[in-house]
């Protein structure tokens, strides 16, 4: 396994405190013998964008759904913000989730609501103390951050695939999350739009100081956004390193992602 470059600076001890997500020995089986996760271990540091690669069915999406409590693992430990997710009650879990943004593949917009209503609904659900003017201000700021303020009165059916992704991201950003989980953010998009979304992910990291896990099959997205990459194979981590390190891996299977 390729490991991240060793930090020999005195700040190494401080870096340990910067871990914001820690996964230990994560296992998940569906049914009797569909063993999706078989002992996954990794950490994500504050401010880091970690890309997760792997073939379909390797456990990528299951892993991030476990992180936010959408799926309960059979075994393991998930520490987020120094809390074990598996020990949280419903209210504590909802409080933690309010600090985490989740961008689904589809964007997950409500088709019966306009763009304004989609974003406002999210705010009303999580920030009940805001008045109408404050909600409108937050909606406009979120849309401006993804370059789509002019789409505020459009319905989802009027949006292109790239616009839906951006609106979905604006709805995620409106709660000002500290962590964002991106599930295939560029799937189904053309090359130019995919790059625009990848650049937006990078911009969000720098302007909002977020931490992210990015699941993707798009190697251009991985190259542009990743501080570090882990590669899942059959429910286990096969390799870990920077894009440049993994591109030169001696493991032919790992290298195949980069060809």
Automatic annotation (TrEMBL):
Q: Which residues span the membrane?
A: none
CDD domains, from UniProt?
ABC_Org_Solvent_Resistant
**Matching InterPro entries:** AAA+_ATPase (IPR003593), ABC_transporter-like_ATP-bd (IPR003439), ABC_transporter-like_CS (IPR017871), P-loop_NTPase (IPR027417)
Q: What residue stretches are annotated with the ABC transporter domain?
A: 21-259
Name the SUPFAM superfamilies on file.
Answer: P-loop containing nucleoside triphosphate hydrolases
Cite the Gene3D superfamilies for this sequence. Answer: P-loop containing nucleotide triphosphate hydrolases (3.40.50.300)
Q: Has UniProt tagged this entry with the keyword Metal-binding? A: no
Highest taxon in the source lineage: Bacteria
Q: Which GO terms describe its molecular function?
A: ATP binding; ATP hydrolysis activity
Keywords tagged on the record: ATP-binding, Nucleotide-binding, Transport
Task: Indicate what this protein is called per its UniProt record.
Answer: ABC transporter ATP-binding protein
The protein's organism comes out as: Flavobacterium hydrophilum
């Amino acid at each position: 396994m390729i490991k991240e470059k060793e930090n020999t600076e005195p700040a190494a001890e401080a870096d340990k405190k910067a871990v914001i997500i820690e996964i230990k020995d994560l296992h998940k089986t569906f049914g009797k013998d569909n063993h999706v996760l078989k002992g996954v271990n990794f950490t994500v540091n504050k401010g880091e964008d970690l890309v997760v690669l792997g073939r379909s069915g390797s456990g990528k999406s299951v892993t991030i759904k476990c992180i936010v409590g959408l799926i309960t693992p059979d075994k393991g430990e998930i520490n987020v913000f120094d809390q074990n997710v598996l020990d949280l009650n419903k209210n504590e879990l909802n409080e933690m989730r309010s600090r985490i943004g989740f961008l689904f593949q589809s964007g997950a917009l409500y088709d019966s609501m306009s763009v304004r209503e989609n974003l406002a609904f999210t705010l009303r659900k999580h920030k009940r103390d805001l008045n109408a003017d404050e909600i409108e201000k937050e909606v406009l700021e979120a849309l401006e951050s993804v370059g789509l303020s002019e789409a505020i009165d459009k319905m989802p059916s009027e949006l292109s695939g790239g616009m839906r992704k951006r609106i979905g991201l604006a709805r995620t950003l409106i709660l000002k999350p500290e962590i964002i989980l991106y599930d295939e953010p560029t799937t189904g998009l053309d090359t130019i739009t995919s790059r625009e979304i990848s650049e937006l992910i990078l911009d969000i990291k720098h302007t909002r100081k977020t931490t992210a896990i990015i699941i993707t099959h798009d190697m251009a997205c991985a190259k542009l956004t990743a501080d570090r990459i882990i590669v899942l194979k059959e429910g286990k981590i096969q390799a870990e390193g920077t894009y440049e390190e993994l591109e030169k891996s001696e493991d032919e299977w790992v290298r195949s992602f980069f060809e």
